[in-house]
Write a structure and sequence with these properties.
Pathway: Steroid biosynthesis; cholesterol biosynthesis. Its EC number is 4.1.1.33. Residues 8-174 form the Diphosphomevalonate decarboxylase-like N-terminal domain. GO terms for molecular function: ATP binding; diphosphomevalonate decarboxylase activity. It is an enzyme of class 4 (lyase). By secondary structure, the protein is α+β, with helices and mostly antiparallel strands. The chain has 2 domains: 2-179, Ribosomal Protein S5, domain 2 (2-Layer Sandwich), CATH 3.30.230.10; 186-339, GHMP kinase, C-terminal domain (Alpha-Beta Plaits, 2-Layer Sandwich). The protein is built from 8 helices and 16 strands. It has a 5-stranded mixed β-sheet with strand order 1-6-9-7-8. Strands 12, 13, 14, 15 and 16 form a 5-stranded antiparallel β-sheet that branches. α5 (214-235) runs antiparallel to α6. It is globular. Bound molecules: (3R)-3-hydroxy-3-methyl-5-(phosphonooxy)pentanoic acid. Residues 13, 16-17, 32, 116, 118-119, 147-149, 202-203, 295-296 line the site of (3R)-3-hydroxy-3-methyl-5-(phosphonooxy)pentanoic acid.
Length: 341
């Protein structure tokens, strides 16, 4: 038996991916940008194995067997096997590309609660399979076919997913903008408002938004300029500009969700209280020190610089005490999950 085990962290988008132009190949309607967390916090861990005695492909996620007969898993298998066959040639004695695969994966955080679990999961799966089958070169386009945002978790630091323009998706992949060491003071703090499974999955939400949100049409025009400006801000370590674009993009994404018919609301009253908290903290500080962003769920991801962490954590604990406050705000870790991209 040949096995490989890898871990991959989640990534937190500051320019959101929302909407596909090709559902099967997972090609987006706009480019997006995120930071990948460090290896120690929210991450998927996956072991993949092949053996000539395996009779079928199988997968277990968090100890429960899952079907591998989904289009996304099948797309990933097909692409990995195709590249392995191309690399090794049909003469390869082991014929590893025709052996059945067993996958065992676990997340150390709530699955499907809007914490980018599928991004970490598919990035980890594709990376492990690529190692197992000796596939090298660009693999973020394979991860993309599992879950769009997964392509960004293939790389560390700040990462861009270029939407590309080609119909076959060959120019739609992730690219690192800066490694994590470029901006070591940058931290992400995750406030877990709810670890329940989200009511509208991102696939379904995106489909409806593309079908009927007029605001989404407008967004597509706005994103290229935002991508240019936030990339510049990251390279120049200009936190103020970075934070302003991040918050505006999160707000626009959730406005599109509300503009979708029937409307989708991922944020809750607690999420909105966190938004107000961040703006009033920034106002009182006389400068922008914290940026919030929310994915397809109510949980807040705060971007801030290390020097401000202590103060923000104590204020969060003061205004959102974790116990018996009726707000159901849980902070991840002790007392909050802190990680550097
Ligand atoms: O990759 P998916 O299908 O889970 O989509 C994720 C979309 C958002 O998390 C809401 C935004 C993003 O860019 O990560």
């Amino acid at each position: 038996m040949k096995t490989v085990t890898c871990t991959a962290p989640v990534n937190i988008a500051v320019i959101k991916y929302w909407g596909k132009r090709d559902e099967n190949l997972i090609l987006p309607v706009n480019s997006s940008l995120s930071a990948t967390l460090g290896q120690n916090e929210l991450r998927a861990k996956t072991t993949v194995a092949v053996d000539p005695s395996f009779t079928e492909d199988k997968m277990w996620l968090n100890d429960k067997e899952q079907s591998v007969n989904t289009q996304r898993i099948q797309n990933v298998f097909r692409e990995i096997r195709r590249r392995a066959r191309k690399r090794k040639g049909d003469g390869d004695k082991s014929k590893i590309f025709s052996q059945k695969i067993h996958i065992c994966s676990e997340n150390n955080f709530p699955t499907a609660a809007g914490l980018a679990s599928s991004a970490a999961g598919y990035a980890c799966l594709v990376y492990s399979l690529a190692k197992l089958f000796d596939v090298d070169g660009e693999i973020s386009d394979i991860a993309r076919q599992g879950s769009g945002s997964a392509c960004r978790s293939i790389y560390g630091g700040f990462v861009e997913w270029q939407m590309g323009t080609k119909a076959d998706g060959s120019d739609s992949f992730a690219k690192q903008i800066t490694p994590a060491q470029h901006w070591p003071e940058m931290c992400i703090l995750i406030l877990v408002v709810s670890d329940q499974k989200k009511h509208t999955g991102s696939t379904e939400g995106m489909q409806t938004s593309v079908q009927n949100s007029r605001l989404l049409e407008k967004r597509i025009e706005v994103v290229p300029e935002r991508m240019t400006n936030i990339t510049k801000a990251i390279k120049e370590k200009d936190f103020h500009t970075f934070a302003e674009i991040t918050m505006k993009d999160s707000n626009q994404f959730h406005a599109i969700c509300l503009d979708t018919y029937p409307p989708i609301s991922y944020m809750t009253d607690v999420s909105r209280q966190i938004v107000r908290f961040v703006h009033s903290f920034n106002n009182h500080s006389g400068e922008t020190k914290v940026a919030y962003t929310f994915d397809a769920g109510p949980n807040a991801c705060l971007y801030l610089l290390e020097k401000d962490l202590g103060r923000v954590i104590s204020l969060v604990n003061h205004f959102f005490p974790a116990q018996d406050n009726g707000l159901n705000l849980k902070v991840q870790g002790l007392p909050v999950s802190i990680d550097k991209p």
